[in-house]
């Protein structure tokens, strides 16, 4: 529970621009997670994937987009497949950040993986991530990877309708 709370506090401090507190709380979250892992799972679903998610959010809020991408990739690697809604939301965030870094083709790959889970996740928040992807990719339709992604995504909505 301490790791979860410290991770939340780190993210909040980063959002308010308090770099020192954000990094201190992140360190506390990592230390608490290390202690918890040496025993049993201390707090439900707060696991290394969730900690990596918080690290990614803190790095992003502090202006380290590339570091945020690294942490989100780690989070996605660690996240259990049963957490489909989280995989959709966080996969979309990862893709958006890669797009901001100019890594369009990698972003398309992440969005394709997001769509794999999106087909099975029923959630308004996931729907929001889908529509954000559609908007973000539209200006890049001259690129074959972007066009393939867009067409696949459009097909998903047509099938559901």
Give a written overview of the molecule.
- The longest helix has 19 residues, at 19-37.
- The chain is an all-alpha fold and 161 residues long.
- The model has no long low-confidence stretch (mean pLDDT 90).
- Helix 5 (84-100) packs parallel to helix 7 and helix 6 (104-118) runs parallel beside helix 8.
- The termini are far apart.
- It has two domains: 1-80, no CATH class; 88-161, no CATH class.
- Helix content is 77%, strand content 0%.
Count, helices: 8
Summarize the helix and strand pattern as letters. Answer: HHHHHHHH
User: What fraction of residues sit in β-strands?
Assistant: under 5%
Mean pLDDT: 90
Query: What's the overall geometry?
Result: globular
> Regions with pLDDT < 50 over 5+ consecutive residues?
none
Task: Summarize the structure in short.
The protein is mainly alpha-helical and 161 residues long. It is 77% helix and 0% strand. The longest helix has 19 residues, at 19-37.
């Amino acid at each position: 529970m301490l790791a979860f709370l410290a991770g939340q506090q780190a993210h909040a401090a980063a959002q308010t621009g308090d770099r020192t507190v954000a990094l201190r709380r992140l360190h506390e979250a990592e230390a608490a997670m290390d202690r918890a892992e040496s025993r049993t799972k201390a707090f439900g679903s707060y696991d290394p994937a969730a900690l990596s998610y918080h690290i990614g959010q803190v790095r992003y809020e502090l202006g380290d987009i590339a570091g945020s991408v690294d942490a989100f990739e780690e989070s996605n690697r660690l996240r259990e497949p049963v957490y489909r809604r989280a995989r959709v939301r966080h996969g979309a965030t990862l893709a958006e950040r890669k797009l901001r870094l100019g890594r369009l083709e990698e972003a398309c790959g992440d969005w394709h993986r997001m769509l794999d889970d999106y087909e099975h996740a029923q959630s308004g928040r996931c729907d929001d991530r889908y529509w954000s992807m559609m908007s973000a990719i539209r200006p890049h339709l001259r690129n074959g990877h972007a066009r393939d992604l867009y067409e696949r995504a459009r097909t998903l909505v047509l099938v559901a309708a």
